[in-house]
Design a protein that fits this description.
- The protein is an alpha+beta fold.
- The chain has 3 domains: 13-63 and 149-239, Gyrase A, domain 2 (2-Layer Sandwich), CATH 3.30.1360; 65-137, Alpha-Beta Plaits (2-Layer Sandwich); 292-372, Elongation Factor Tu (Ef-tu), domain 3, CATH 2.40.30.
- The protein is 19% helix and 32% strand.
- It is built from 8 helices and 22 strands.
- The strands form 5 sheets. A 6-stranded mixed sheet has the order 13-14-15-12-4-16, with helices on both faces. A 6-stranded antiparallel β-barrel has the order 17-20-19-18-21-22.
- The longest helix is centred in the middle third of the chain and has 14 residues, at 210-223.
- It is globular, with a radius of gyration of 21 Å.
- The relative contact order is 0.14.
């Protein structure tokens, strides 16, 4: 494997736990939201197997947090999302597609509602800070948009509840999915949400204050010794199996939430104030959409650019954006944007991979989900 040396500078942020990630044996590094992040602590397959059997602590400092506060905070965020924010409660998190006036995806963060005039956005890899600042300034909204000193640590895996109970008490594990509770450690209160970018179950801890992140990482690792805790990161194989989409990879501003399969997160039967409302009403019946597909043959190479899909008659049928060999499924699992004429489960297509053409089968559901 070729080692890539990053010429790091102050233009790249490092999380407060970056050195702990490096000491834990990170084998590769990437840049996400202008943040240097460590990845892979064994092989991808080893990390995958461990995530599915034990518990991992992730430094997800690349998931930059933007705070929107003030009397017009909800109005400002609502302008960017078709999801109705008026129904959220103070202990609720919500996965929200954020769109431009044409309905194109700008981001897909988890929104945490701290109060009716204060929200946190845990962002995917695109700059919503400047977009929100621009809207607020142009419309003269009474709100502040800024990056707080908040860093996210994730605890993911089947033993996540047991580890959280050891550190924060049994009551914390009663937090419902996409809800949060306040927890305390060493005199510091933090938001603990039942969420995370895996389908193994777990939590995300919003550490308010960079000075506290390192000690909390150490406490989680110490408490998890008997649980086979390890440092980890989002795993490509596991996220494809679970149908977890990567913004900028599986979807972009060129796609609507409906094309990304996020229709359930859109309120379009009434105008909630989203600037893209009219465009999304017109685009509610997509001509292409995200689908799980199985790629035949040996282990696929890395998807460094979209792989074209073709129908048996040679017509373009879509593109594959993410793919990996699944040790559990014993096949190549993949995420694809597939044309309406070809997305019926059981449809046979072909993909033009870097190592040649391969057969493709459209599946009825993602492998890590219990139902479609």
């Amino acid at each position: 494997m070729t080692q890539i040396i990053l010429n790091a500078s102050n233009r790249l942020r490092r999380s407060p736990t970056f050195e702990r990630v490096r000491a834990a044996g990170a084998k590769a590094y990437s840049v996400y939201n202008k943040t240097l992040i460590g990845q892979w602590f064994g092989t991808m397959e080893e990390d995958y197997a461990h995530l599915k059997s034990a518990v991992q602590v992730w430094d997800v400092g690349g998931e930059r947090v933007v705070e929107v506060a003030g009397p017009d905070a909800q109005r400002l965020i609502q302008m960017t999302t078709p999801r109705d924010l008026s129904v959220l409660t103070d202990d609720q998190c919500a996965y929200i597609p954020m769109v431009d006036p044409q309905g194109g995806m700008l981001n897909d963060p988890v929104l945490t509602r701290l109060a009716d005039d204060r929200y946190w956005l845990a962002l995917a890899d695109s700059d919503m800070l400047l977009y929100l600042k621009g809207l607020a300034a142009g419309l003269k909204l009474d709100t502040r948009v800024f990056e707080p000193d908040v860093w996210i640590l994730a605890v993911q895996g089947p033993s996540a509840d047991e580890l959280i109970a050891k550190v924060f008490g049994e009551a914390a594990t009663r937090t419902r999915f996409f809800r949060y509770t306040m927890v305390e450690l060493g005199g510091k209160w933090m938001v603990l949400a039942r969420s995370g970018w895996s389908v193994q179950g777990g939590f995300e801890l919003y550490v308010d204050g960079s000075d506290h992140a390192g000690p909390i990482w150490d406490r989680l690792m110490e408490a998890g010794r008997g649980l086979d805790v390890r440092a980890g990161c989002p795993n490509l194989i596991e996220r494809i199996e679970g149908g977890l989409l990567s913004y900028g990879n599986d979807m972009s501003v060129e796609h609507t939430p409906f094309e990304a399969g996020l229709g359930r997160s859109c309120t379009i039967d009434r105008d909630t104030g989203c600037l893209g409302h009219a465009a999304l009403v017109a685009a509610r019946e997509p001509q292409r959409q995200i689908r799980p597909v199985e790629i035949a043959g040996a282990k696929v190479p890395v998807v460094a650019a979209l792989w074209p899909l073709t129908a048996p008659d040679g017509q373009p049928a879509g593109t594959v954006s993410s793919a990996a060999w699944s040790p559990e499924q014993q096949t190549n699992v993949a995420i694809a944007m597939v044309g309406r004429a070809y997305w019926t489960p059981g449809t046979e297509l072909a993909v033009q991979a870097p190592d040649g053409e391969r057969p493709v089968l459209v599946k009825d559901r993602f492998w890590g989900r219990k139902s479609a």
